[in-house]
Amino acid sequence: MRILYEHLEPEFPVNWRYTRFREHRLEAYWHFHPEYELTYIMHGTGTRLAGNSVEEYRPGDLALFGPDLPHTYVTTPESEPIEAIVVHFARDFLGPEFFGSPVFGNVRRMLDDALRGIRFPGALPPLEDLSRLAPPERTVELLRILVTLSREPYILLATGRSPSVLHQGAAVRIQAMMKAIHSGYTARLTLEDIAAAAHMHASAASRLFARSTGFTVSHYVNLVRVNRACQLLRDTDRSVSTVAADSGFANLSNFNRRFRELKRMSPREYRANFRVELEAADVTDLGDVRRHRAGGRRNRALRQSEQGGRPVVDETGEVGVHGRP
Questions:
Q1: Which CATH architecture does the domain made up of 168-273 adopt?
Q2: Is Cytoplasm there in the keyword field (predicted)?
């Protein structure tokens, strides 16, 4: 995995970039740049990294990364091709002090929070429409989208300092270790196996990985496996023991322990919560269920915001409110 500076040129005649792409799969490419990045996943599943945040992504995932925040998306081996819309813009793309105006206070605070990375659990912005507009209307529509998102509840992703920037040699080794993890996490995977992919001794590889990503190797492997288990618990009827095995856990007790550590509930509770919401929504299509779940989270947060301000949820699940006088 590389964590490298990426230079992006604006698209003339506008001074920001709109990209829609489709790829068979995405390998780890941990990079950063001085622009903000708004990424909307239309198709595909996998793992999203932002600073020291590691989460599952799936269709409908919408995230905003601030300047110089390392981030990447990695597809799962069995994922359908990934299709995404990515918008890059500088904070001053409408002028140096544009978002300093009090009328755009919510946008300013959102952009500040994006330095840690943001996930919007219930927002469905019309990003596809941007490509069909003329440059002036396209830029006005991007501003409208940012204003709308600033009023939505969102979840902060990263905590603490961002991982350090790597020189090219170390970056190649990290990339090799990441590739070994994402391609082999469903089977027995040892630190020696991962280190061998980078042509390193286990102890040296462990130190390099932790220094560069903010995670120990074992913790990162558990995150990837638990994220995969969540997908299987939602989207299949496999038994919990089968889900554990298919996610790379050698025994059920270890799976239950790791799952509870990371998700704060057991695998059975996770599946039961999903099915309760399915029954409450009275729908059978999984896409409809996910939209219902996102809408429910948004409505609960918005009820809190009516009492003053815009709700913001950090990665621990705690809800705060921004925008109060």
A1: Orthogonal Bundle (1.10)
A2: yes
